[in-house]
Amino acid sequence: MISTFIDHELKAFWRSKNTGKSIAVKVVMGILILMLFLYVLALGVFLDAILKQVFPKDDLIVSFCGIILVYFLFDMLMRLQLQELPTLKVQPYLHLPVKRNTVVGYLALTAMMSFFNLWPIVIFTPFIIKVVIPSTGAIAGLAFFISIIALSILNNYLALYIKRKANLNGWIFLFAGAILSLIVCGDYIWHVYSIQKISYLFFGNLLRVPFWTFLPVFLAIGMYYLNFYYLKDNLYLEELSTKKAEAAKSSTEIPLLSRFGEVGDLTANEIKLILRNKRPRSALIMGLFFMFYGLIFYTQAMYGETIKVFVGMFMTGIFIINYGQFMFSWQASHFDGILVSKISFRNFLRAKYLLFTVVSTVAFLLTTPYVYFGWKTLLMHFVMYLWNIGVNTTMVLWFANFNQKRIDLSKGASFNWEGVGASQLLLSLPLLICPYLIYLPFKWIGYTDAGVAALAFIGLAFILTREFWITQLEKDFLNKRYKIAEGFRNK
Q1: What InterPro entries does the annotation carry (predicted)?
Q2: What percent of the chain has pLDDT over 90?
């Protein structure tokens, strides 16, 4: 039956009206993946030399044991962002004498066809053959190899399970991202524990007692069956849709926003849109990952104080940049309904401002631990927070009036160029350059604090004159609304 499923999917692909476009995309993707594969293979071949340079004081096998769990932690972060859910149009088979287990088994099997499952084998196998087996024997090398494959399978099905649960309740995705972020922070920022030491604790014992390999194997099998039975229980559309409706109703009501009236309701609806759809949700998740951006620059003295303008703006405003560059395209599928509804476009714009203010406020609060690098760092974050919710939000909404490309919300963000156009490139330049046009002249004449004060003053001025800018944006939109709507209708 599995061969029948594969045959049907191949026929569906070749008979699709977009076959030519799909082939072109797959060819380009194949070339990129091949190039990436060669880089990963080179990393695996020279991993022993790299570990010697990075950990010159440690034994080679000790350092190798220490990085394995670190790799799989970041592997999970990448899977949550990039790995796609395996799909099958099951409706035609539900009324046929096809067993549920067969359909679900096929979905579980295709879930293994991910390049994320290939990378650990390519990276770690050369090291196991070159170093582990000659030093500790073939049995220990085999135990290492089986454990790495089992951890890869565990990550594979855990990421898919989180994504499937998140389709019913968007908060689950944020909760999973928060847990992973806390795990990373606990090691690399707060130094509560060491993931490398935990990794060595397991894999070091694995060298002496190979039977420890059964632990990751049992965890992988358990996660496989957890996915299997979850899919089996939700195979029929009415079961999944009912649960999804109940979960959406209970998980996305935001009483705090109701006090803002119609503006609060519009903001709550947009938050629901973000949490329920893949591509906008990825913009929010990417914002969480970029909270660690400061660790790249603040730990290196060579970057100096000037870089804090960029880093502060980026961390407190990454959502405005990522999500705002496609503004109004997120509502492309129902934009005509917005135009003919009784919703005031003025309130529609106010809701955008409120959304960006709420998310940027949360982002600023998440960056407060960077006070560890000095109070001036936190002050710069606050100044750029004011700049983001004042100046950058206004610029993003102004550029939105030039955006006429629709976006399919159901598609993932990875390698998806839908909706990307010249307006996105033009938008990124002023967002990145404008703060420096204000700050650098003061720095060059020796008044750095005055430059920071000027940024704060301009950001605050834009916030206080927000109604004026909303009026100007509304006038500009009314002149272009039909042209925008026409662009969104082109699929």
Answers
A1: DUF5687 (IPR043742)
A2: 37
